[in-house]
Amino acid sequence: MSTSNNDGATTPFWLSALGIWLVLATAMLIAGFDRVTALDLNDSDDYMRLVQVERWLESAAWNDLTEPRMMPPQGVTLHWSRLPDLPIAAVISVAGLWTDRDDAAAAALLVVPTIYLLVFLLLISWIAARTFGPRTAPLAALLAAFAIPATGQFMPGRIDHHGLQVLLALVMLAGVLRIYAGSRRQWPVIIGIAAAVSLAIGVESLPQVAAAYAALALGWVLGRDGMLRHTVIMAVTTAAATALILLFAVPRNAYYAAACDSLSLAYGTAVALVAAGILALWIMDRWLGGTLMRLVASGLVLIIVAAVTLVAYPGCLEGPYTALPDDVKSQWLETIAEARGAFSVLADDPLGFILYFALPLIGLAVAVRGFITRREEAHWLPLAVFLITSLAVALLQIRGGNVANAIAIIAALPFYYAIQQWVSARARILPLLTSVLAMLLVSPTVIYALGQLAKGQAADEPAPMACAVPESLEKLKSLEQGIVMAPPNLGPVLLRHTDHAVIGANYHRNPDGIRHAIRFFTAESDEDARQILAETRADYIAFCSTPQPYGPHGVKTEGTLSYRLNNGDVPAWLTRDSEAMTAPGTVLVFRSLTTIGN
């Protein structure tokens, strides 16, 4: 496949991206408008993001990420960043001049992801045009529209930070590809800023930042001119931007806290050490002749940085969940769908495995083959490095598939372009349309959809946020303000739609609340359940009525409290405040008669 940037096409790259965005965004907005405007969201993280933004707009400081209504009275400080709140807050502030709180929130839920989707398609099209030629830009945008693990992060209502991290990963990839193509020196600065911002938004982006460093360092190891200088500029920019973000993002009393699950002094130290190590390589470059010596020197710098960081902050050796108790890990963390590993998905849901991993695997195969057979084309190495890194993350936790699929759109483009060209050359009727349809038929999303249709989609499982709509919470909202014991997934919903506090919400800095909620709803004796209520001082119990006796994480045991309550067996120490248990998806509300204050 030609990699020329001038292969006869005259249509600007952005035109196809804009056209596909108009169609895709319109379809998404039509499909999701009623649900989103009712503030009925698919993910509890989106509710929590909305809670954080609105609290900031009301009174909270920029660097105050504490949610006082979660696990009162001490509250819980989230590991999130304020940076993703900026565009959401901007839309809410502007819309709030003409409308009420809920409508302003709905405007942000519709506008922000839709703008991100446009940026996503523009980035994909631009990278494709610059890497493989302008003719591939429309194909790249079309392929992106069907890469659901990536594009799904820009659905209406999706305001959590994952979409931003996909965009920043693409910016870093674009910068590295342009450097390999011999572009100007502003790209190392852009990559450095993107790396710092991405780390500030969430340290789960560390592998993508590492991929950018690794791709540039490998270019130097393999003898590419000027690559080490670009790496130095990127490293110094990342360190400076990280220090600036830390200065304003972290409260003064937490400057020296070594948080392992968010940007903190621990990661700031690592970034600074990386910059110092790369500067040292730059100084010694004249004495590091040959690939082997450069590779050894790079390895030594990496070992020294890791060793010094882990000696200074040993608690981070086990990762961001190091402080999470084992029982909470097994009963909560390991049940989260997006935290599952690839082999678990393959065993339980082969079609889901295809959806998340087929495109990255195709892209990796194309990149490796290109690097082996067409090494003169510089883009194959960075594409392979980024894909190997993101795929490694996805193998551990499926959420890594979001970034892996976004990068794979570029890497797999020659494969799909070849299919399109082959079919187009042989099609007798509507060759362009026929070739595009043939290409889409082998896209993972279409294969997944056809597979689901073939096997039939069982609908006996309740949606995870089945009772998240505000209308289902009217009874709870009418009760005097208090503390609610609810399944962790429902916690953020209650924080947004009611004035109550909650015990459990599904965030790893709330291990006690998660443990209390799981123990309460799965309790098999009244004594255990009442003791938990007394410890937490909860006034109300709330959970979704479902066709099955579900606890907070799929528990169906008949002896559990959730089973009994769902079937009308209310113990004497509770009174039912909700209406009769009829349709699935309603919220069952019970008042405690034994806690302090009742």
Describe this protein's structure:
The longest helix has 32 residues, at 101-132. The protein is 59% helix and 4% strand. Mean pLDDT is 85; it is low at 2-9, 458-464 and 547-551. A hairpin with an 8-residue loop joins strand 1 (66-67) and strand 2. The chain contains 25 helices and 7 strands. The N and C termini lie far apart (73 Å). By secondary structure, it is mainly α. 48% of the residues are buried. Helix 2 (44-58) runs parallel beside helix 22 and helix 16 (380-396) runs antiparallel to helix 17 (401-411). The strands form 2 sheets. A 5-stranded mixed β-sheet has the order 4-3-5-7-6. A two-stranded antiparallel sheet has the order 1-2.
How many runs of DSSP E, i.e. beta strands? 7
N-to-C span: 73 Å
Strand order of the largest sheet: 4-3-5-7-6
Number of helices, where a helix is a run of at least 4 consecutive DSSP H or I residues: 25
Question: Can you tell me the residue ranges where pLDDT is under 50 for at least 5 consecutive residues?
Answer: 2-9, 458-464, 547-551
Helix share, percent: 55-70%
Shape from CA axes? globular
Oligomeric state of the chains present here: single chain
